[in-house]
Design brief:
With 87 residues, this protein is an alpha+beta fold. The chain has 5 helices and 2 strands. Strands 1-2 form a two-stranded parallel ribbon. Strand 1, helix 1 and strand 2 form a beta-alpha-beta unit. The longest helix is centred in the last third of the chain and has 8 residues. The protein is elongated, with a radius of gyration of 16 Å. The protein starts with 5 loop residues before the first strand and ends with a helix.
Length: 87
């Protein structure tokens, strides 16, 4: 963990990054000062606008911008730098 002030935001209804298994342990391991902001009745990606990325196509648009075939993009987890492509 970086030795910097941190803010952890957790959707309490997130079933992908479950707060008790992901966010709270990371929060506990972070250097002070650190804050945890749990948000009730919020699921995964509930506090961002990810669906507006890639000209409104969401993750499929991100995959296409990275040169992946959208029909298979959902089958693989990839990490790509798309910032230059999406502007």
């Amino acid at each position: 963990m970086p030795d910097k002030p941190s803010l952890f935001v957790a959707g309490m209804d997130d079933r992908v990054a479950v707060s008790a298994k992901v966010t709270k342990p990371a929060f506990g391991a972070a250097a002070a000062p650190t804050r945890l902001w749990p948000i009730d009745k919020l699921g995964h990606n509930g506090f961002d606008d990810f669906c507006t990325f890639a000209n409104g196509k969401g993750i499929i648009g991100v995959a296409e911008a990275a040169g992946l075939d959208a029909s298979v993009a959902g089958r693989y987890r990839v990490q790509v730098d798309i910032s230059a492509r999406l502007g």
